[in-house]
Design a protein that fits this description.
- This protein is an all-alpha fold.
- 67% of the residues lie in helices and 0% in strands.
- It is globular and about 45 Å long.
Length: 106
């Protein structure tokens, strides 16, 4: 398999099933909950590890979307990571993907 094929396979957009949608939402809610429990100070790099794992899992479950990048960047700002940004982002991406699936091509 050539490199462009591997990149395409990694960045593919999977079909949104109920299981993938619920799993992505669960990952986002758990990540936001953990960060809320850690408090504004958190552990050393604990919040960043949670954010990296969340980004990877959500991208694997519902596919990469550009809206995930600002959420990841916002989570690096202290006190902003207390907001449920992952949950809001996952809901937005799922809504956009479903709307895109319903629209006829062209």
């Amino acid at each position: 398999m050539r490199l462009p094929e591997k990149i395409h396979q990694v960045l593919r957009i999977p079909k949104l099933t109920r299981a993938r949608t619920v799993s992505a939402l669960a990952v986002a809610v758990v990540a936001d909950g953990l960060q809320l429990l850690l408090g504004p100070f958190g552990w050393v790099f604990g919040d960043q590890i949670i954010d990296a794992v969340t980004m990877l899992l959500v991208s694997w479950l519902i596919g990469f979307h550009w809206l995930l990048l600002p959420s990841f960047a916002l989570e690096l700002i202290p006190l902003v990571d207390e907001l449920p940004t992952w949950t809001a982002c996952v809901v937005a991406v799922i809504t956009l993907r479903r709307r895109g699936e319903k629209m006829p091509p062209g």
